[in-house]
Amino acid sequence: MSANWENITKPYLDTKVDQLQDSNGQIDSVPALSLDLPDHKIVADLENRIEDSKNYWNEAKGYNLRTDRAKNVKMYLGQYVDEGQLYRFQIPYVENEIFVATETIVAYLTSEQPSPEVYPAQDSQQSKILASDLEKGLKGHSGKMELNRHLESAIRNLLLKRVGFLYLWFDPDYGQNGEIRIKSLDPDHVVVDKNAERGANPAFICIYMKNSVEELCYLFPDKKEAIMMEIGAKKQPQRMSQTIDWRQVWLTHYDENGAPQEGCVSYFGSLVLDKYKNPNWMYANVKKNFLDMPLKPIIPLNYINDGTHWIDSTTPVEQASWIQEVLNKRGRQIMENADAANGMLVISSDAMSMDDAENLTGDPNQKLVIDTKGEPIGDLIDNIQGRELPAYVIDDKVDLRNTVHSIMGTPPQMRGDDSSQAETLGENLMMKNQATGRQDLIVRAVDACLNRYFNYLVQMMTVHYTDKHFMTINSNDGDFDYITLHRDLIEKGCSVTVKNGSTLPFDKSRQEAIAMNLAKGQLIDPLNLYKDLHMDSPQKRYDAWAKWKTDPMALARDALDELDDTTAYIDYIEALAGKKVKPRDDASKEHVLIHRKQMISDQFLTASRTVQTNFIAHVAAEVQSLQLRTDLDAMAMQGAMALAPQNPIQPAPPPQAPMGPPGMTPGAPPPSPGGGAMPPGAGMPPMGGQGGPTPGPVPNPTTPMNAPDIMGAIGGMTPPMPRGNNVTSIPPV
To answer: How large a percentage of the chain has pLDDT more than 90?
Structure first.
């Protein structure tokens, strides 16, 4: 008899929102969301929408989230055993392979720190420097905020609760200038609009929060009196430590022109604590935003999803849970059979009473005295041996264990188990590569989540980094990079992504073997060889090698070629933004050279007169500081050479007769062609650090300076540059 398909309930079926092919017209009705309504109306409408979506997700014939999540978590913790089905003498048996497989996947996916990549907006040196600094700053922020730890929690939630969430918010009280913080949300405390498709912007996302009354009053100081009245504790200060459950709802509403707007409402009970626009968006100057549109600060992590909802259809843990139950049952069966290996002692009631039989403990040294009454002892006492389990029972248990890991995609080579049947290293590596291939889908899911995360992080930096934020990261050459992050240093048009699979473990031994083979064939340079061999400070090792190959006393890298001084670009961008930048006390020659190049760029030539004047003064002060430091260094070097024993001071030569026309005064300068004596100091170059700068041309104060005006101003404000072997003797651009 064929099945009646019309009477079979389809999974995840809600005729109001999911079954559209048989509908035409209205299929559902929910309240519209808005921030302009009275507070009591906002709370009522939000509660209606939240409860409607929550009932949809928890429908037993649909997603059944609450029940399935609880079962998955119990399976993971090894607590899913119905002890009511066991006899009093039986004990629970759990061989928790789901826990092993879950932790294997989490460890595999988070073994390395995520590596973002930032592509410059333009093909210019400045754009490349800014992109490189932003990339390093994102890495530094990820390490500072422990992104890996929160990602681990999100992946566990993905495997156990069908979705993971990363939540970003700006904390003004964290650090000196505030900081963007991150945490993983428990999916049980998040309700998402039932109509939101994967990757879309949901109509609302509700986050359940909990804080003490004291903390809530600190978070919402303007509502302190209302909070106390809402909980009825106005005259009971001892209740300030009570924990309050409140809700933060990020929502999309529409203004009077029909344009979508993003906002947030925080409330508990009937009290609205706060309502405001999405704070992670620049409304005054929309073009300065990094993202194309404002989004909610909750980043989802999806895996097995057909694209119809934000919540996944199932998880590997859920699929393997049925096999885990049978595995536990089979293991208990084998255990109980092993307990009965000594057999069962059967005693006739004619030989021993029930009370005496209960005193038998099974101790091998226990003495048993019975009255046989002339009967053979074998007829009164017997030991019935336990039956040996068939081999297929043991084989079935092993097969069940392997099936759990086959569903989860975690064979022995991946989880570090010694049950592998491979006999050689090559076979093990092949099986390991096949095993990691099973995780490619979830690897791409993690990469997609991190892509959204880093883009939203840059958007929040664009909005909230109004002051300078400093990051220190360990660079690949063994040194430390000191990065400055500011909203003005994030170039509009750059793109941010994450390196595919950057969180995965890296096979170092394989890379090192390949590098050595390339080195034998002279197909790799020493610097990259050091890097591929994972040696410390590869750049310093290469420098030492270069010195040894050329001149041990020479530097491997010429400082004149290192013109990419990041601080020069930072100062320049801040100056263009209208800020008065303080000159740097330790400005290098490269720093000044970059500034000179910047001052003849079209961007600087078209800047305002005030910007040009302030920046020229900034450069002049740095040049003067560089001149003074160089002169002092030269004077110290000359003094040291004069005092050295191998260079004794020579006595002054005896005076000689003056050479010149008769009647010329000894020591007097020759007469000038014009007939007059030369003024003192004429024709002599000014000494560094002596006298003031030579006046230059005065530009028109009403218009931006052109190139000749700027170069004249530079010449007028710049002290004379030293000559000869002085390291600051650089030609003007």
So the answer is: 34
Neighbours of 137 (CB within 10 A): 27
What values do phi and psi take at 649, rounded to 5? Answer: -70, 125
Number of Cβ within a 10 Å radius of residue 274: 13
For residues 393, 428, 410, 298, the Cα torsion angle rounded to the nearest 10 degrees is 180
| Torsion sign over Cα 19, 20, 25, 27 | positive
- Reported as a single tens digit per residue, the pLDDT across 662-720 is 444 444 444 444 444 444 444 433 444 444 444 444 455 556 766 666 656 555 444 44
Tokens representing residue 87 in the block: 């006899």
Which residue in the block uniquely carries the two structure tokens 């000191």? Answer: 482
End-to-end CA distance of the chain: 93
Which pLDDT belongs to residue 553? 58
CB 459 within 8 A of CB 291: yes
How far apart, in whole angstroms, are the C-alpha atoms of residue 318 and residue 324? 10
442 contacts: CB under 8 Å, gap ≥ 6: 105, 109, 158, 303
Please say whether the beta carbons of 404 and 99 come within 8 A: no
Nearest residue to 158 (alpha-carbon basis) of 444, 405, 446: 446
d(CA 481, CA 477): 10
Q: pTM of this prediction?
A: 0.72
Across residues 397-404, what is the average pLDDT?
Answer: 92
The three-state secondary structure class of 345 is strand
* Cα 730 to Cα 76, 560, 585, 725, distances in angstroms: 69, 10, 19, 11
Using DSSP, state whether 254 is helix, strand or coil.
Answer: strand
Three-state DSSP state, 317: helix
CA distance 240 to 228: 9
Say how many C-beta atoms besides its own lie within 10 A of residue 432's C-beta: 17
Provide mean pLDDT across the span 173-183. 92
- The C-alpha atoms of residue 32 and residue 387 are separated, in whole angstroms, by 70
The order of strands in the sheet holding 243-254 is 190-192, 204-212, 243-254, 260-268, 271-277
Q: What number of H helices and E strands is found in the chain?
A: 22, 14
Residue by residue, DSSP assigns 401-458 as HHHHHHHHT--HHHHT-S-----SHHHHHHHHHHHHHTTHHHHHHHHHHHHHHHHHHH
What is the rounded CA–CA span in Å between residue 289 and residue 293? Answer: 8
* Better pLDDT: 37 or 733: 37
Rg (CA), the chain: 40
Which structure tokens are listed for 49? 């929408």
Residue with tokens 């208990």: 332
Identify which has the larger pLDDT, 688 or 256: 256
CB 678: neighbour CB atoms within 10 A? 13
d(CA 20, CA 308): 13
pLDDT at 590 over 90: no
- SS3 per residue for 516-537: HHHHHCCCCCHHHHHHHCCCCC
206's enclosing H/E stretch is strand 204-212
237 alpha carbon, distance to own chain's centre = 41
pLDDT of residue 544: 75
Burial 29-63 (b: 16+ CB within 10 A, else e): ebeebbbebeeeebbebbbebbebbbebbeeeebb
What is the chain's percent helix, strand, coil content, to nearest 5?
A: 45, 10, 45
